[in-house]
Design goal:
This protein is 32% helix and 24% strand. The protein is an alpha/beta fold and 330 residues long. The protein has a five-stranded mixed β-sheet with strand order 1-7-6-4-5, sandwiched between helices. The protein has a four-stranded mixed β-sheet with strand order 8-13-12-11, sandwiched between helices. The relative contact order is 0.19. The model has no long low-confidence stretch (mean pLDDT 96).
Length: 330
C-alpha cells in the first residue's frame, strides 16, 4: 500500500529591504525613545521598502526567485502561489497573480489570503491540502507585508512595531511522513474593533473624509490585543501539542510570530520551551505581519535538521490565531 502523501517544506527563502528604521530614527519622528521600545517590544530596528509605486510584490519576487533557484526548479513547474498579506499591491488583481507573472510562473494559479499576522499559517494549511490531495506537486506559500504603507508615523503606539519583509516556502509531496502534520486555526471577528484598518474596503470606501480622519492606517488598541495574543498563541500551541501526544521536550524549535518579545516568552513558557529553542529576530525586523514566520525559517534554515519537530504559532488582527506542527523534511 502506498504511503500517505504529506506536504513537506522543501525550501525557504526571504527578502527584506535594505533601508533600516532604527529606534533612534523614530525618536526624531514621534515622542518615544529607544529604551522604551526595546523594553516593551524587543524591537531595535525594522526594514522599510522605499520608492514610488513599490508594492509588496517588489519584496515577494526576489524571495520567490531565490526560492526557485535554491531548489533548482523552473517557475513553469509551479502549480500554485498563495500570498498571505494585508498590504496587497492593489485591491485586485491578487498580488499572487502579479507575482506569478513577474517570476514567469505561467502555469500557476494564485490567490491572496487575508488573515493578518496569522496569514502564513492559514495559507500553509491550504497549500498543504492541495499537495495532500495528490492533484498538485509544487505550491509556493508566501507571507509578506509592506506595513510601512499603512502605518501612521504620527502614532507612537503603532509606528514603533511594524516593518516590511517577505518570506516564501515551497511545498512538495513527501512519502516519508515528513512535513506538515497538524494545524489548529482559529478566528473571532469580535476582535475587529481592537485591531483593524477601518477605511478602504466596501464599508468605508476612500473619501476626503476617511483620509482626513486617518482611517486608512492600521489601528491597534495595544493592551487589549496584547492580552488576547498572549492567551491565544499560548493556548493554541499547548492544545496542538496535547492532541498530538507531545510535550515541549519533543519540540526542537518554536517558530513564533514576531509581534512582541513578551508574547513570544509567554508562548514558550506555556509549552515548556527554553529560550534557546525559540526563533527570535524581532530585534532586527520588527513585526512584518504575515512575513515573520517564514523569515524566521529562512534565517534558521541552516540549523534545522531532518526530523526536527517545529511548532509555528501566530496571532493576528481582528482576531486570527493558530499553530502548526511540522516534521522538518531536510
Amino acid at each position: 500500500m502506498a504511503n500517505k502523501i504529506t506536504a513537506a517544506i522543501t525550501a525557504v527563502n526571504g527578502y527584506v529591504p535594505e533601508d533600516k528604521l532604527t529606534n533612534f530614527d523614530l525618536e526624531k519622528i514621534v515622542d518615544t525613545n529607544d529604551e522604551w521600545i526595546r523594553t516593551r517590544t524587543g524591537i531595535e530596528e525594522r526594514r522599510i521598502l522605499k520608492g514610488e509605486g513599490k508594492g509588496v510584490s517588489e519584496m515577494i519576487v526576489p524571495a520567490v526567485n531565490g526560492l526557485l533557484e535554491k531548489r533548482g526548479i523552473d517557475a513553469k513547474e509551479v502549480d500554485c502561489i498563495i500570498v498571505a498579506t494585508v498590504t496587497p499591491d492593489m485591491v485586485f488583481p491578487a498580488t499572487a497573480n502579479i507575482v506569478a507573472h513577474k517570476v514567469g510562473a505561467i502555469n500557476a494559479f494564485g490567490y491572496d489570503v487575508s488573515a493578518a499576522c496569522s496569514g502564513f499559517l492559514y495559507a500553509l494549511t491550504q497549500g498543504a491540502a492541495f499537495i495532500e490531495s495528490g492533484r498538485y506537486k509544487k505550491v509556493i506559500v508566501v507571507g509578506a507585508d509592506k506595513m510601512s504603507a499603512i502605518v501612521d508615523y504620527t502614532d507612537r503606539t503603532t509606528c514603533i512595531i511594524f516593518g516590511d519583509g517577505a518570506g516564501a516556502a515551497l511545498l512538495e509531496p513527501n512519502e516519508d511522513g515528513m512535513g506538515i502534520k497538524d494545524s489548529l486555526l482559529k478566528s473571532d471577528g469580535a476582535g475587529a474593533q481592537y485591531l483593524r484598518m477601518k477605511a478602504g474596503g466596501s464599508a468605508y470606501p476612500a473619501s476626503a473624509e476617511t483620509v482626513a480622519n486617518r482611517e486608512h492606517y492600521a489601528y491597534q488598541e495595544g493592551q487589549t490585543v496584547f492580552k488576547f495574543a498572549v492567551k491565544g498563541m499560548a493556548d493554541v500551541s499547548a492544545e496542538l501539542l496535547e492532541r498530538n501526544g507531545l510535550t515541549g521536550d519533543d519540540i526542537a524549535w518554536l517558530v513564533p510570530h514576531q509581534a512582541n518579545l513578551r508574547i513570544i516568552d509567554a508562548t514558550a513558557n506555556r509549552i515548556g520551551l527554553p529560550k534557546e529553542k525559540v526563533m527570535i529576530n524581532i530585534q532586527k525586523f520588527g513585526n512584518t505581519t504575515a512575513a515573520t514566520i517564514p523569515l524566521c525559517l529562512w534565517e534558521w534554515e541552516s540549523k534545522l535538521k531532518k526530523g526536527d519537530k517545529l511548532v509555528l504559532a501566530a496571532f493576528g488582527g481582528g482576531f486570527t490565531w493558530g499553530a502548526t506542527l511540522i516534521d522538518w523534511a531536510y
